[in-house]
Amino acid sequence: MNDASKSRISRRSLLAGLATMPTLFVAAGSRAAQTKPDGAAVQEVQAALKKATGTKLVILGSGGGPSPTVPGRTRHNTSHVMVSNASAYVLDCGLGVTNQFARTGLSFTTVRSIFITHHHPDHNVEYGPLLLIGWVQGLPGSVRVFGPPPLRQMTEDLLRAYKTTIDFWAEDFKMKPLELPVVKEVSAPGDILQDENVKVTAAIVQHPPVRPALAYRFDFRDRSIVFSGDTAPLEAVGRLAKGADLLVHEAMYLPAVEAYVRDRIAKGVPTNFDAYMAHMKADHTPVEDVSRIAQAAGVKTLVLSHFVPAIDGIADETWREAAAKHFQGEILVARDLMVI
Hints:
13 helices
């Protein structure tokens, strides 16, 4: 069977599944359990990082939206860690980031900086727990945090909320209490960080009504990595990613989004179909448009992630085929704990 025939079968299978969404979920869970057992993924990421040379990106969570990771669904909320010269840089803190970071085998003592793209729960809901659990596990007091306003107030409020817990643990473990990290709020494009490992640049993206929402570029000594954040198709992302080694871009598959919303309604979840779809089209990037942005930017590798919808029933080939319409470079379909 040739590749074209496989693609046609893949599309037919997907569309058939979308017509009966519950079936799609069941099939996805079964396939995920057979192809990537959780223990195997953990062993894989730890082995890859132990033998790694140069800068590595680990996809901690590849799912978009605030959906929890339920049994049979493999994608955690969006989060990443970049590792360079024994230093770790965390980008976004969706649900599950703390456990996923621990699964990599990396020490919390290696974390230098944390970056937040915008204030939606699938990107920041576990920021506080990462600080709290990380503190007990050796997170440096010198860690720096970057993100849109009101990040400093949020951080102060989180530490205030956890003060009783922090005080108890500090007393029990005879440790210095968790203190407010160095927080730099980012509300304009430009360079925001330069240390001995990396230069970091931010751009403003379009994700209404969230303002500002950010994309980031990380220029390490050996490779450059760009993250789109959540955004509608935008030339600013292409400019930021010009000539980059990796572009990690959110990806939306509209037929699956429509089927997902109708399934929510059928299950009695209060949902306004028109409002939901209007938001998705105004705030996110269809995968075909992602391919145009990547091609115009001349990036070497396009990493599709922050999948919308964050279900397992869409075959990798479907995402890859749509992205290949305009992009001629390497295309990777992200999965949790993938090392790039």
